[in-house]
Amino acid sequence: MDDTIQLRTIGVVRRDGGDGADGQAVLAVQPELRPALLGIEPGMRLQVMYWMHRLSDEHRRVLQCHPRGDRSRPLRGVFALRSPMRPNMIGSTEVDVKAVRDTEVVVTGLDAFDGSPIVDIKIAPRR
Amino acid sequence: MDDTIQLRTIGVVRRDGGDGADGQAVLAVQPELRPALLGIEPGMRLQVMYWMHRLSDEHRRVLQCHPRGDRSRPLRGVFALRSPMRPNMIGSTEVDVKAVRDTEVVVTGLDAFDGSPIVDIKIAPRR
């Protein structure tokens, strides 16, 4: 088994209104990937995968955490949590599309920080 | 912006019963990551991210497809689809845990092929 996989960043998260899932964020997609946005429209729900870039390589070695950092709760494995600390720090969040402007998709509900590299965008799964 | 991100494979999908989302699959996690499974139990719902390894680099350059390969339907951007063809071929699927045995998690509902490298496991988001 090949043990490493190379991702390319397909864009970056921009948010002027500060971090946190409140408010709008912009998915600024690399210009050469604009054709991949065809069909994205306001009202759609997308799944965005991004790299949690503010963590260090040291955080990739953490295998257990207290849920939500609460030390009164017993340790759990990172694969049983959604903690950002994990071997591959990929965040995955479903968002609502508010607008599409050229290579920018304006969304709400994204918990990524300003500057986070985006690694994939998919339509959200049906439920 | 750093344009590449290195992932490590955290395990591999094993399925004896053939491919497809039907039937059981095993998430065979690398032995040194066993502590990261603490707290995973039957009945839990997990989100599994895996690399769609049977596609070639050529498929990473595809930016538009016909939905489900149906040429009667208009082309759409890959970011508006869940097609496996996309710049970073990361699959993301929610599965049900049936059993945990040492470093193996037995699940149902996984649409990954036998041999797919796993890149992340998280508890599924609450809805």
Describe this structure in words.
2 copies of one chain form a homodimer. The first copy, chain A, is mainly beta. Chain A folds into 2 domains: 11-53 and 89-123, YaeB-like (Elongation Factor Tu (Ef-tu), domain 3, Beta Barrel); 60-87, no CATH class. Chain A is 0% helix and 39% strand. Chain A contains no helices and 9 strands. Chain A has strands spanning 4-8, 11-14, 24-29, 45-51, 64-65, 76-77, 90-101, 104-108, 117-123. In chain A, the strands form 2 sheets. Chain A has a 6-stranded antiparallel β-barrel with strand order 2-3-8-7-4-9. In chain A, strands 5-6 form a two-stranded antiparallel sheet. In chain A, strand 7 (90-101) and strand 8 form a beta hairpin. Chain A is globular, with a radius of gyration of 16 Å. The N and C termini of chain A lie far apart (33 Å). The mean pLDDT of chain A is 93. Chains A and B meet through strand 1, strand 4, strand 6, strand 7 and strand 9 of A and strand 1, strand 4, strand 6, strand 7 and strand 9 of B.
